[in-house]
Amino acid sequence: MAYLAHARDLRNLLSVAAKLRLLADDTLCKGDQVLYLMAAEALEKRASWLSGTLPEDDPGKAPDDTRQHQPVDLII
């Protein structure tokens, strides 16, 4: 589950950074443009740092085989 939380955080950070870059392109005020770009770069650096700390979990692997359900007999 930690893997999914980190992946969600990375996706959110990069999504906000992309929106800030679009906002910087659309704004007419150069001061605001610089501020938006600096914020986007900071978020991208944070995402880069977080990507290096991803847990080693395999998202497709069940954490414990004993938790899987036994087959159900549907013969009536």
Overall description:
The protein has a domain of 32 residues. By secondary structure, the chain is mostly helical. The chain has two helices and no strands. The longest helix is centred in the N-terminal third of the chain and has 25 residues.
The structural class is mainly alpha
Instruction: State the helix count.
Output: 2
How would a textbook summarize the main sheet? none
Task: State the shape.
Answer: elongated
Poorly predicted regions are none
What's the Cα radius of gyration? 21 Å
What is the straight-line distance between the termini? 38 Å
Q: Tell me the series of helices and strands, N- to C-terminal.
A: HH
**What is the share of helical residues?**
55-70%
Number of strands: 0
Integer average pLDDT: 80
Strand content: under 5%
List keywords for this structure.
mainly alpha, 76 residues, 2 helices
Detail the topology: elements first, then pairings.
Elements: H1 2-26, H2 30-51
Summarize this, please?
The protein has 76 residues and is an all-alpha fold. The chain has 2 helices and no strands.
